[in-house]
Amino acid sequence: MAVVTKKKHTRKDKVNEIIRAEDTWEPVGHTPMPEIPDLRNWDMRLMKTYKPFYAPMCDLCCFCTYGKCDLTGDKRGACGIDISAQQARVVLLACCMGMSAHGGHGRHVLHYLIEKYGRDYKINLGDQINVEAPHIRTVLGLKPETLGDLEKALEYVESQLIHLISSLHTGQEGSALDYESKALHASMLDHVGMEVCDIAEIVGFGFPTSVADTPMVDMGWGSIDKTKPTILLVGHNPVTAVPIVDYINEHGLQDKVEVGGICCTALEVTRYSSRAKIVGPLSRQLYFVKTGFADVIVTDEQCIRTDIPQQAAKVGSAFIATTDKASYGLDDVGKKEADQIVRDMVDNGKQSLIFDPDKAAEVAVKVALELAPKRKKELVTPEQVPELAKDHKLCNMCSQVCPNLLPVGDAIEAAKNGNLELLAEVFSKCIGCGKCEQECPRHVPIFKMMQAIAGNETWKVRAGRGPVMDTEIRKVGAPIVLGTIPGVIAIVGCSNFPEEISEIADIVDEFAKRKYIVVLTGCSAMAAGMKKDKDGKTVYEKYPPAFDAGGVLNIGSCVANAHITGAAMKIANIFATLPLRGNYEVIADYVLNRVGACGLAWGAMSQKAASIATGCNRLGIPVVLGPHGAKYRRLYMSRKEEDDWTVMDGREKKLVDTEEPSPEHLITVVESKGRAMVTMAKLCIRKNDTPQGRQLKLTHYIGLHKQYLGTLPDDIQLFVRKASDIPIFFKKEVMAHLEKVGWKEKPVLTLPTLIGTYPSEVPIESVVH
Hints:
By secondary structure, the protein is of the alpha/beta class. The protein contains 28 helices and 21 strands. About 40% of the residues lie in helices and about 10% in strands. The longest helix has about 35 residues, at about 85-115.
């Protein structure tokens, strides 16, 4: 009688099947495809040192029909929740929204490319990249080889999301710390989703890879040739942008139609075509739309003004929406012939929803060609401004609603009298929200007036390059870990800046000339290019594009953020030879304790920025936020010397109290450009720095503190382990301070680790390789 062998159906069996566990490229670690509880102990260990700090924007909970519930003081809501858990719940919600936005973007791209090329389409990131997907390798334990493998990774992310969202329901989680652990989990998954998305775009659309010196592209509204039909792309998803460029090229219209973009679609389309233009970051969206320079506006998803159809109609721009995430109540006209849609738009002013990217591209180009000759494109001149402002009365309602409290009312009053200087200053700090114009009781056209002082200057931005190359990691791994390259500075996120947009360029310049490695993405990558030095060069023209000391790199759009955190993972893998496969705790522990990196989200606005930052935090990378970042409601902060800074000495296998708060915080808010730079330099300090590396890092920390804050840091004693750590240039001053505060020597470790300091299945031997 034949013996029937039953196929196993445990989750472990299913995971092994998905990740092809029998492949021997690396041993499978302890947490392949982790579920919510699997990395909970790592999160709790992080939050033991970096305790959540909550700053509620509201003391009420309005989530269910028991409410509104007052959560002030020790009060709890009708469901039993307290204010800390409610704030953490809102943080998890934001991180799930951010992760879903990137994941939805990736799902759309994958669906389009799989339909076009099939699931077996091979992943090839060029001859300089072998570790193609550090997040997918580390989190899932899968080495992706095809678009189908990327789909498996995304399906895993989606399967986790349903459990995370479930925990937000009334009568579920009651612990702030467990909500935070779930937020960390969601945000780790966000980086997986971003990696899926950007790799798919690189292989499917032919974006740059295995190259540092990508083309320079033009940026600024002045770079748009207003005499040509102009298509403006707004959003993040290149699935429609790429066919528009293809249609233009196929019909020989390269010199007849302008294509420009705002937000990350601009970065994506310029990775595909260096002839495309970057109009600017999110903060310039409303301004440019209101100029009416765009003959056709095409939107996809994320960070688009939700009233953009109305704004387009006001200035006579045609409008096409292309995704199910943002359909604006428009009629789906996708089943009509392209020429019929064109007629409806040109003759009747109809706005259209077209899900088919190729049809949307054809319609956009044809409408632009027909409409452009019929439209006038003129900016307001300085001489016209007083007439536009003639009805203004100084009530300051505009200034009161401004998120940056800019003197808008005073600027309009001065402009009414012919003085435009203050209006120019306001524009340089404007985040483009439009609240001032909406609030004005006399309907003064503030944004229209700004056309007179915005100027037509153009800048250069290097096209997004995608992943950091393995060859670059081999070169800089040791200097970064030992501290002789003082740190990697990642400047990412939105353009909700507290001051002039040029501050980003100032920060990039300061760190690049100090030989940090500076990487940028998203709106911050654009903003970095919006300032020229005395020689007329932007930071992209001034500094080399390599991932090396003093390099300035545009990695790409928001989804390219995965390549920044992925570079930290590659350092652990390529330099330290730690296996990535299903080995998240070991890799995150290595990054936290040994890789001097720090993120800056100076203008963070969106839920995507929240999940990006929180994903960095779980991986052990600190993040600094600008003042508006306090509105995210939660920080992860230590209390310096009051906290326990005990780690395991991985070589001696014994606990050591280092007495050193490094890195001091995982996510914190600062109020000024100077304070941000000082904090970032400090947050690049790591316990394993060599004496030479620590000297270098303290040289920059002290130098920046004295340059921008005017004094020696009052906590320098916490970061001097031995006298050999003291920078020679500041030795006399530092020694006097150390003597005054009663400084004592601290232990120096070459292999600090948190593994072994909390309950974990990962053995201490895993960190020694």
